[in-house]
């Protein structure tokens, strides 16, 4: 256990790791492992994997003759599994495993490693990381440390709904009916034993868990993860998602984090993020928060990245206006305590590396411009409602329009090529998903997320 935790205590951006040594150490401790999943999250939020026999991974690392080559899926493939026209002819991509992220998974014969993506084009054959979401997050964290002496801790609330296939129609339906919302009756649901089973194993595997409870409806649960540094926090989030999905699939169920699985059910599923700011050089809280609020409509292009995401644009869910407040769950940003916020306008369809990079980067831009906090604390009952509040984008198209209009501002965070590529893919994705049957589209989201 101590050795496994040591693999996940640092990132490739902090302590260079020898890939052969890392894999050999892991295999020595877990010789039953047969397969390695090299996983990456694409711009649509889909988790993808190249599965290698562990012997082949050793061969590739030892000979250094072959990269882990994959099709150009990162920034070219839509949620409907279709490429942007001509994308495959223009982009070549391969995986760069971060061996510090290696973990055992629910499949007892397998382990997973999270990867960055390096790309080239025919016209520019020099390898670059410009489009890589992990690179974007690593660069933002580095900039915060070097320029502002800032460090961050990030924790996620993993909400999920247990579904099953209807014996009559084959369509997905909720496993259970009845009240949830912290009710003990929700813990008497037959599928709760699998939730406990997952949590027990995740704890053994070194995942830091604060607690769990029944969510809004029976059969819906939330697992609160303890905070970690940004990159490790997102890696851990994806590991927990995979573990839950793999475990429930073994029992014939589907654990989904899709934002609104069923048209007929008003209940939704979020992916709230807790962010703590730690500064050794004074109080940066006000300008950091102002930077996020000023750019929240642009951030929504990453944090609410699909048309279905905007069905959560309501008070007490993702929020509907640009605002914040101390313990104000009606707002998209809830302040917990000094320099600790809950970002609520996020769901699990987001590429969380890009989303977190956008949030942190927006805060850094607020610091750089010493931006004033123009939005009042809605948690203070003595303050009149702010008539200046602007609405959050109502659609993905509106979010993308904000991002495109202010791309020069965000380009200092991501670089312009990533923003342009992201917008291009999302616009193509809107055109493809818009033509799908609404029920089939939600079933696709249930399966992918």
TrEMBL record:
GO terms for molecular function: glutamine synthetase activity. It holds the Pfam family Gln-synt_C. Keywords: Ligase. SMART domains: Gln-synt_C (SM01230). InterPro entries: Gln_synth/guanido_kin_cat_dom, Gln_synth_cat_dom. Residues 133-449 form the GS catalytic domain. The keyword Phosphoprotein does not apply. Belongs to the glutamine synthetase family. PANTHER family: GAMMA-GLUTAMYLPUTRESCINE SYNTHETASE, TYPE-1 GLUTAMINE SYNTHETASE 1. This is Glutamine synthetase.
